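Re: the pair you flagged

First of the two:
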Amino acid sequence: MQSKIIIMLTHNDQTVKDALQVFEQCKDLPIDFWGFKDVGLPREEMKTLIDAMKAAGKTTFLEIVTYSEQECMNGAKLAVELGFDYLMGTLFFDNVYNYLKTQKIKYLPFCGTVSGSPSILEGSFDDIIADAQQMIDKGVDGIDLLAFRHKHGAELAREYCSRVKAPVVIAGSINNYERIEFINEINPWAFTMGSALFTANFVPHADFRTNLIAVIEYMNQIDKS
């Protein structure tokens, strides 16, 4: 399976309280990309967590789900100060992008009309794709696409991946084996997974690590098929 998986230590759109413990229990697994959100943990605990991820050789992602220019700038500064490799989310503002261009971090903003918590994505396929392409043309490193937060999620994801060649992360609601197969078919650069592991969607009644191992084995099986 060519698409990379980004394991997000989040549930219900917040970083879980025991995120560091969960990471330590799973850091030996063959997952390179790990991340979390800016809500759920105090700043000092976020710093401890990202330091642990970096010490383990992981590539790190912070996802910011805020919508005002000031909130997005605050999120961008937090991602830089904590030393993340990637900032995902935020609405695109020139001011935020111009700041991030001066920093050693890659930026994957939301595209389309994003609002609410949990987030929803609205807009026609053409409008969402045009918005993404405009940001890509300005120089962002890729896009955070909340495909399955749109009422036509699968169709949007397929159309987007067929038309836009820059890196895209399909974020949210990859929560069963069928959707992993779908992701393999449309082949985005990466996709996120978090809540489905905490709610044991893949191995019922089992812990996070057991569910993540099941996902890894399934992705490896796709590679061999």
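Second of the two:
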Amino acid sequence: MEYILNIQGLDKSFTLHNLGKKIRAVSGISIQVRAGEFVGITGKSGSGKSTVLKCMYRTYLPDRGEILYDSKKFGLIDLAAATEREMIYLRKHEIGYVSQFLNAMPRTTARELVKQAIEEMGTDEASAAIQTEEILAHFELDRELWDSYPATFSGGEKLRLNIARAMVKRPRLLLLDEPTASLDQASKMKVKELIQQLMNEGTTMIGIFHDLEFMQDLCDREYSIHEGSFLASVN
């Protein structure tokens, strides 16, 4: 297959039951991504950028359209029609998602969260332990926090942990939903360094960033989305 991801005619709406209204989030979105590319998506807040990514990850179920993904395990699979079992496997082993927010099991330490993510990829416990320490050190998460619960972390610390947990798995496809929004410049450069490393290793990425300067020299192509109804290549 020429493309690792081929989206055609993607539509998604939300119903506001208390108001009896239906809100169109995105309509007629089509995009094709080759293996190893970094594709950037830009647009104003509320334009539908995150909705597109969440449909790819199947956090949202699209109303219409195809999201054809060239899976290592399943071959060509439509993520819009995949079973929950198939999506669970793909999220564990092939497709990563990083957002501004950390969703973690309660009473699980930072070290345990990252180590579990690595072990899901089939890495043995000893190697997973080493890789866990390397990634936590890379993102300069205070060593005293490694065996603490993320609920006690600051927003920036939670975000760095969230990025570390997703990137350490080295997924085939990585979706980045404004992951650097609340990071300082030094932390952003740590993220950029790891993105570039993953790109060199062949990871395909689709990213949304408010910091266009950060994204500019990473992207192979950039798309602009306007009011959810049009997605056009701008380079």
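The radius of gyration is 18 Å.

-B.
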